[in-house]
Design brief:
Chain lengths: 376, 525, 289
Amino acid sequence: MSLKQLSRRFGVLAGGGLLMSSSSAWAELGLNMTRGVTSISREAYDLHMLILWICVLIGVAVFGVMFYSMYHHRKSRGAVPAQFHESTTVEIVWTVVPMLILIGMAIPATRALIAMEDTSNADMTITVTGYQWKWKYDYLDEDISFFSTSSTPRAQILNDAEKGEHYLLEVDNPVVVPVGKKIRFLTTAADVIHAWWVPDLGWKRDAIPGFINESWATIEEPGIYRGQCAELCGKDHGFMPVVVVAKTEEDYQAWVSDQKASAGAAAASADREWTLAELMSKGESVYGTACAACHQPSGEGMGDMFPALKGSPVTTAGPVEEHIATVLKGRTGTAMAAFAAQLDDVDLAAVVTYTRNAWGNDTGQLVQPTQIKSLR
Amino acid sequence: MSTDAIAHDDHHDEPAKGLMRWVTTTNHKDIGTLYLLFSLLMFFVGGAMALVIRAELFQPGLQLVDPHFFNQMTTMHALVMIFGAVMPAFVGLANWLIPMMIGAPDMALPRLNNWSFWIMPFAFTLLLATLFMDGGAPASGWTIYPPLSLQTGDAFPFLIFAIHFMGISSVMGSINIIATILNMRAPGMSLMKMPLFVWTWLITAYLLIAVMPVLAGAVTMLLTDKFFATSFFNAAGGGDPVMFQHIFWFFGHPEVYILILPAFGIISQIIPTFSRKPLFGYASMVYATASIAFLSFIVWAHHMFTVGMPLAGELFFMYATSLIAVPTGVKVFNWVATMWKGAITFETPMLFALAFVVLFTIGGFSGLMLAMAPADFQYHDTYFVVAHFHYVLVPGAIFAIMAAVYYWLPKWTGHMIDESLGRKHFWLSVIGVNILFFPQHFLGLAGMPRRIPDYALQFAEFNALSSIGAFIFGLSQLMFLWIVIKTIRGGQQASDQVWEGAKGLEWTLPSPPPYHTFETAPEIK
Amino acid sequence: MSSTSHDGYYVPHGSYWPITASVAVFVTMLGAANWLNGSGGGSTLFVIGLILVVFMMFGWFGTVVKESLAGRYNAQVDRSFRWSMSWFIFSEVMFFAAFFGALYYARTFSIPWLGGEGSNAMTNAVLWPAFETVWPTNGPADLGGAYQIMGTWGLPAINTLILLTSGVTITWAHWGLQKNDRKQLIRGLAATVLLGFTFLCVQAYEYSHAYHALNLTLGSGIYGSTFFMLTGFHGFHVTIGAIMLTVMLVRSVRGHFTPEHHFAFEAASWYWHFVDVVWLGLFIFVYWF
Ligand code: HEA
Ligand code: HEA
Ligand code: CUA
Ligand SMILES: [Cu+2]
């Protein structure tokens, strides 16, 4: 960000301070929790505002007394200290009153919580699986399944290009859902714990390897809702956005048939013979989304943590089977994940071919999707 | 050592000379000093890491460090601050003050006391050395959740052993403190006459002994999961990654009260002094402390509302957590009531204590908000949480420690502090800390996750502001260092009582107190 | 308590033992960490560290024994020791609590959840379709392959008897000490030590049986993990306790203890009882139910 932009933003900030009391200004400046687009998000918001105001009131009262006493009972004003140090009555009062306030807060909180946990009678179910560092969505009723990866160009992150409007909050394949339907989300993970979070839906839920958590949302308005992974999941935890596109029922159905058509085409292509050029260009893009985060676009890896693929014995001299096995099965106990479930045969063939030929690895060997299929 | 030598083991009033005095010392004052100096050093190390974090977050985009190193900084910052800065500072204060407050000649087990301290530099060598290892330092957050923490490189066993080592130190130190308080009080010093600092430490020590071994157990299971094929935290083998979180927070939640109860004790000493009025509600303070400690064992899963616990569990932990507001409220009200109709003056220790009361309470309020599970589904793992815990830890624990140092330093060194410098340090700190952490509430509410090295553009201005605050606050702490050095080296001679309103045994001793105090016990009426 | 005079509370002079202890443990940990990482020299360093630890223990405890014999410890010091030992044992209880907690959690929560209980129908249906809730188990992925569980009424029951008996013999020894009957003291202690080491031998045999005949290993899922973790740390504590008792035996033979003054003996016996109680917990929850 340029200095000019920065100073403009500070201008906004200073103005915002004056407007704090009006709640619309709060929302615009991103000072407060979003009200969101689901019944749950509104319950969370209302509860938040309720406790906030209770705390503000108690704060004003307590600090008011304190500041009064700091001013009026100063020694420099000639105050003479009293010697009382006990009063059973007030002590009971200030134990009981907070207790009652807490009970008052617990009632709406309990109601909201019970509503959130009720995932019954859903209209559709989507499984959300966290991977280092992308999301996979499976539409259980539709046989649709795809990965969703950050689409912010690295140049923007490294400050070599102007940052876009949705910097870090944009993905290649957003998850598309219909409005007005109760959607059940099943969250889980393939490697480490992640958390799937879209503030406008009103909740986040941990994605835990080996277990499935259930949550739900009924989105009321069409729109694009953005969120992020909210559980530390390693190096690129900050680069794991979630984008939900809520569409009307018709638009959603149109999207569903589109998806099915392109899935059919992809399946057919896995059986045919691919050329080196085709594999290389496909491989470059797969590599960019799946591998570059660790092994770097240059193939040179990062320090001791992530080995170079450029000139590595595995990608150059070693047998192609070992190379494929490494990518399919991963290396247990390291960040190198098993990609068998994440990439299809074409992607895998392309990325292996690409890593064996890019950056001067030049083995000239190419791997066909059918070969991957037989090695799975 | 021969039997003969022991027979002549009468006390000299002079400490041994040279470096070895510090290495071999069994004197509670020496050991207290060592703890405090170590803590100060770690505060700067941990603070420097925080400044790396804040510098990277000054603007969107990656500027200074790569994401992996950023995560190392977050992790190490927290570990160093909690285990290296705050805890040793409290133990140092306990060492200096408890024997003087209860009229004991020293700690109950002086040699063990020495060991408790001398573990720390070694444990931190193990921990900090990981910064230079293959794969870098631990980078999975201070909460070291598996499976992520199992991806740590060579640093992993060093981290685990460092935690074990620190745990031994804490447990030994706590045993010593409990034995001292229960067994070494001067005649007439009944439990309900003890200064509150002593009370809060008694309860803190109990918490430490109860939970540090649990942490040790948890990290041991991590170690075997990584190296010996066990599957405690692996669903494929019938375990559960969330099980680690339960065990960790069974330690972790009491731990945060370990970081605050001694601070409550300190504030309860300082406010009466400068209000010139006895502490209001002494007995209820003691009971409140005990209730907080008790409750702290049954609230741990409020850190885990989003892991998908059964509804009954979420409700239980939500209710239990909010209950803690009651005894904590009692404390806050008692402090205010102590000031009420007092004759208040505003020396530096009092300024820090007053800021503590206000800012800690703000942190407590945000804690209560976090405790409401449905709202926590939004707050969790955002900067709102970061704002919460820094309010209770920095203007909470750290301010209390600084208040304590300003308050007792004249007793320890015999020199008054430079009041005008102290006040400047106070004002810079209190302004800096609010610029630093207040905007983080807004960031969290607007949706910024924690533990990220880069963020979306709508978070830019508050992050920039927070970073500016961090540098104001951080650099102001160099002033603290300077004031402490200056006071040690000289200054106006302090009287025995030091502060006009100060009451308690330690203020009956000369300033500085002789190397050995209360060899014959004072009589308390 | 607070009315006793402080006169003569023993505050030792500076000591090199604590720093020796820190260095010793540091070297041990450094060695162990390098060893685990597969870096060179780890195991050597580890052994050097252990030797240093043993050296330090002899030195530090030796000093304490000498001071005790020289009569430096008055009744108040004795009380400090008692408080300290009690709280130390409490800390050990909490250490075991972590592992018992893991066992409890796995059996009451994670295994049933993986089997589809509570709100986890989908966990079972989607991720682990073939898995049924049973205990013991090596988990839905059958980690470590087929194994047999450790029986209850064979060696473990014998070991229970051994430890319970040793609890009796040490109490008998204590009675001997109290009525100044050195013979009874020494016999009781010797029997206890013997029983302690027998227990360890039986357990070593049991482990080797588990590994070789039952294919029950640390890698046998959550059952293997909890089984070896709990019994292993218990066995480690029995070893420490048995060594402590051996030292007490030597000191009894040398006549260090008097009916009034024998805290070291009591501390060792408290520890032994603690180890005993933990075993009962193990026997019930690990072997039996
Ligand atoms: C000194 C440390 C300290 C202290 C004292 C506290 C105090 C409290 N904390 Fe905090 N907490 C932390 C340190 C601390 N915390 C840390 C480090 C984390 C994050 C860990 C991590 O994830 O890395 C954390 C996280 C944390 C969470 C998890 C958030 C999340 O991850 O989603 C929660 C949730 O319930 C919580 C709640 C509370 C509550 C209810 C209190 C209460 O004790 C506060 C009570 C005080 C008051 C309420 C104010 C005074 C009271 C009155 C004036 C009386 C009247 C008031 C009312 C009736 C409203 N804390
Ligand atoms: C007692 C504990 C404690 C203390 C005192 C602090 C103090 C500070 N902390 Fe924090 N912090 C934690 C405990 C603490 N912290 C914990 C538990 C976490 C969670 C970690 C996790 O997610 O796992 C955390 C996380 C955390 C984050 C979030 C990181 C993330 O989510 O990625 C941030 C970001 O702003 C931050 C900032 C700061 C700052 C600016 C200070 C300032 O108060 C520091 C003051 C600065 C100084 C004292 C600097 C002095 C130094 C100099 C002046 C320079 C001297 C230089 C040299 C010697 C080289 N801390
Ligand atoms: Cu995925 Cu954080
Ligand atoms: Cu907590």
